[in-house]
Amino acid sequence: MNPDFKQELFRISDRETFSAAALEVFHFQSTSVPVYRDYLNALKVEPEKVSTLEEIPFLPVEFFKSHRVIAEGMEAEEVFESSGTTGSTSASTTGSTSVDTSARTPGGTTSHHYVADAALYRESFLRSFNRFYGSPEERCILALLPSYMERSGSSLVYMMDQMIKWSGHPDSGFYLENLEELSAILKKRNSDGHPTLLLGVSFALLELAERHPLQLGGHIKVMETGGMKGRRKELVRGELHEILTGAFGVPTIHSEYGMTELLSQAYSRGEGIFHTPPWMDLLIRDPNDPLSLVGEGHTGGLNIIDLANLYSCSFIATGDLGKRFEDGSFEVLGRFDHSDIRGCNLLVS
Known about the structure:
Layout: H1 5-9, H2 15-32, H3 34-42, E1 59-60, H4 63-66, E2 78-81, E3 112-115, H5 118-133, E4 140-144, H6 146-149, H7 155-167, E5 173-174, H8 179-192, E6 196-200, H9 202-211, E7 220-224, H10 237-248, E8 254-257, E9 266-268, E10 273-275, E11 280-286, E12 289-294, E13 300-306, E14 315-324, E15 330-335
Parallel strand pairs: 1-14, 4-5, 4-6, 6-7, 7-8
Antiparallel strand pairs: 2-3, 8-9, 9-10, 10-15, 11-12, 11-13, 13-14, 14-15
């Protein structure tokens, strides 16, 4: 891989440049990432014949549960682990074809992302946040992530810890179960008008909304990361946002789309419509034929291209259902359940 590629990655500005960069990453990973190489071999795909994005096979996200997805000769600087509650749905492990088992992770119940270049992850999430919200230094950043803080290896906690440090505001920080203190901080921000981001997991934001409803000013953004973590009944996004907008007096609720297996995030400024940074995109796969794609506006599985995943796999077939729109934005509509995931019988049996 060209050593200057990491900087070129963040200079992508159009679809043509993105496609060229994605194909360069594909040809690198098809030979350098053992799990992906074996998967392509099992599909009988000849990488040198792949010349368009639509021809690239996407690695089922379940491989991050069973294998070390990392380029040969590289060691992990950070290992991120999913919670096991909202991570990728387990796929069927039946089938006669298997990939090399030498890179299996122990246990296989949660996803592990072996990150060979943590600086690349930091640059990706900083540049993405800057693109949608401006510099973290301009905001007070409040993180309400109790379930994530109760375990180690969370990529979201890593990201927010860095953002809080970059913020430099004395009130920026993690606010676990101390909702009364957090409410007092929000009242201060209402008074002084300082731009503020309140980011939280859904169940914790609901608890804050019930115990400490507060009419927030327009300079305070409320962002949910999804997930009830078994603490509450699951709500569809529309219901969740209606409750939160009513309790906090804000016109819209922002959302973040990310996962352990990705080093980039997409953001929604409202209505659950997400936009990606220029080095991230997606295609929609046919829910009944995972090796085929469907057009814009049709519902199917989200195939994410994240070029920041340079040393793992940039082409991931997620367990999420959604649709892509003409302008490149997308909507997440739900998840495959266990019985709905098809085409993953190349996993280790």
